[in-house]
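Hi C.,

You asked whether I'd gotten around to modeling the 249-residue construct. I have! Everything is below, sequence then structure, no commentary in between.
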Amino acid sequence: MKLEVGKLLYQGKAKDVYETDHPDQVMVKFRDDITAGDGQKKDKIGKKGYYNSIISAKFFLLLAEEGVETQYLDLPEPGYMLCKKLEMIPLEVIARNVAAGSLVRRFPFQEGQELDPPLIQMDFKNDEYHDPMLNDDIAKALGIVTQDDLDYIRRVTLKINKILKNFLESKGLMFPDFKIEYGRDKEGNIVLGDEISPDTCRFWDRETCDILDKDLFRKGESGVIEAYRRVAEIILDEDDLEKWSLDPE
C-alpha cells in the first residue's frame, strides 16, 4: 500500500513533490524514470526509485550527524521521502574529485585525473538554456544568489564532499564527482535538498574500477539496477537493513 499524498506540486525528470497535511513539509516520490543527455534519452528501470531513496536517506542522515542541514525528515517507506519544504535555488552545484564526464569532454583533462583540491562547478538549472555553466558574476546578475550565498554554498559543498568521500573510501568506493542542489527554508536559510544517489553521483569500485552509477545508462550498458543495489548494499549497515530491505517485493 502506497502512502497517501496531497496535491502534486512539482514533477521533475525522476521525482514528484506532493503537499502533505503540514504546510512546511512535502513528500517526495522517487520514480523509476531514468534520463540522460539533457532528457533526450529516457527509460524506466524497476526499483530505481526504491534504491535511490534509500541511498539518499543514508547520505542525508550521515551528513546531518556531521552538522550539515538538509531537508530530509524521514523515509516512511522506500520510494517516499518526507522533507522540509524549500524554495529551490536554480543552481546545480558539482564537486569534482576526479576528472570524468563533461569535464573531460570540455577541457583538456585526462579521464581519471585526480583533482586536488577538488573543483566546484555551478550550472544554471534551466532546461530551456540546457543548464549552462555559471561564473559568480552571471549568477549574481541573474539574481539567483548573492556573493555571501555563493561563498556559503561552496563552503558547505566542500564539507559535504569531505564527509562523503571519506565515508565512501572507507567502504571501498571512489567518489569522482557529485551534483547537489540547495533551497531556502521559510526562514531564508540555505539548506541542502534534492537527492544524493547514483543518479547524481559517480561511484567507482576502488579495486575493479567498475562503474556503479547512471553512467552505465548513459553508455548504453547493462546492469544499471544491479549497480544501484550494489551501492546500497555497500553503504548500509545492519541497523539500516533492519529498516530498509534491499529486496523489495
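If it helps when you're writing up: The domain at 88-205 is CATH 3.30.470.20 (D-amino Acid Aminotransferase; Chain A, domain 1).

Thanks,
B.
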